[in-house]
Amino acid sequence: MSGRHRRNFNMRGAGVVGAAMAIVVVLAGSYLGYQRLSDSKCTGSTRLTVAAANEIAPAVTQTAQKWIKDGANVNGTCVAVTVTPVNSATMAAAIAGEHHVTLSGLGAAPESVKVPDVWIPDSDAWLLRLHSEAAGFLPQGAPKPVAQSPIVVAMPEPVAKTIGWPNKKLGWKDLLGLVTKSGNIRTGIVDPARDSSGLAALLALGQAAGVGAAAQQGKVEAIKALAQNASSLSDDLLQKFPHSQDPNDIATALSAAPLSEEAVVGYNAQKPPVPLVGLYLQPNPPPLDYPYTIMPEVDLPTASLANSLFAQLQTPAFKNTLATVGLRAADGSLGADFSRPLGAPDSSPPAKPAGGDGENSGGGSAAGGVDAGVVSQALGAWTAITKPGRALAVFDVSGSMNEKVPTAGNLTRAQVTQRAATQGLALFGADWEVGTMLFSTDMDGKLPYKQVVPITPLVTGREQVQAAVEQIVPKKDGDTGLYDTVLAAYKEVQKGWEPGRVNSVILFTDGKNENPDGITLNTLVAQLKKLNDATKPVKVVIIGIGTEVNQKELETITNATPNGGTYIAKDPAKISDIFLQALANRTGTAN
Questions:
Q1: DSSP string, 1-40
Q2: Which residues, other chains included, contact 268 with Cβ-Cβ below 8 Å and sequence gap of 6+?
Q3: pTM greater than 0.85 (yes/no)
Q4: For 247-258, what is each residue's pLDDT tens digit?
């Protein structure tokens, strides 16, 4: 018997030792399975493929190897287990591709990377992000953590002492101050779109900043400072720490970076000239929790085998094995011979099951109660600030935009949209290019739209764009010329298309098309498909405001464009949040 089908993995990028261990498990399982079949002690065989985050893969491999050597079988069936080290971002991209979606900041995975029967990513944030984009991604049962690694701020020991470590208790608000106000502390981060420790730190800093205009500005400044020393991989970031005790080296190297405890343990194991300490800031953000995830569509015999392997990962022996690779048990306790960083606590809060409530992982919360929308908003802010973009912002000024929003202090829909646009504009870096367009009916003669500012670099045109946002004023008795406007905006963005950027139309509307003199929906869709150019992709993002929009109509439009997206703010007061979620899912660059 076998799983849904045999899966093979690309070993590129995995360590030689990890690859060798994976092969040992396969060989051991196959040989022992054959031996027991010859002795008629079991009938048939079941193979289980496991993809595990690079740092935990050796511990899982060792445990699976011992299990097989000791005569593992499930209901009389011989077993074989393949454990492959795979970067969590790479596997998340592969799973996303299987569901025909793309996660922010990842792109497509190599075709050689295949989805396994069991996946152990470094964080359940990956499960949350996948389900947020692909509603059909529903692992079997509730994924459960098998290890954990707290999020710490790694600092060279001499630098940590200058800010009061180890005697002074520090929190994320303290780090926020160091990031934004101290010229002597050079901070960095691993790209939050690709790394779970970077994402956890981004969420913790955002929570520490609070709410309000001043808090928003603080978040922007913090992200900009962190992005100056951002890396795609934690190993690359670690290389930016000082390489000698020379005071000049320490003064010019990286001073601080949020990383996992395991990364600090691994770095110090190499006996660097300047060891790192881990600052365990309060409040504790959710740790990396390594959820054991049985993939959808795995057949019953394979799922039974997967559950049996999971039981092996709950033993005291596995906890001690985790300690050898710098990881804690899921309950936060330490196994024997754990090489703790200086200042590390004896225990940390237990990792919670993915979903937070014991239900299927398709729920809306990650460990620690983090909401999918909050994650998307944080990634949206990161994307807006750090990734260059080119966008035409298109605003509905039909008469209905004058309706008041009780949840926003009775501001009108237009005023709420103005506020969201202003906040979004503040996030965009100087390397963005933005233009504005207004639409209703009869805005420029019989045309339902009017371009206010052509797409212009914000480095010189920010004030001009901001002034255009202030012109979002509803037109009395104006209707909604949606279809003609989308087509005109698409053509405008495509006309000046630039490589290396996300070229997009971002349109806000509170209604459905009401323009009898304009084109039909079928004509719009046909025109958009005709204009599609794979070498010059234009993404259309539509943000629906309120409950009067026709979501099906909007999705029909955006589905006709590459990587298009429709987002509905049923409560118009939440437009800013929805806008950030839309930015987090911008894709469609071509070079």
A1: --SSS------TTS-HHHHHHHHHHHHHHHHHHHHHHHTT
A2: 275, 276, 339, 341
A3: no
A4: 888 889 999 999
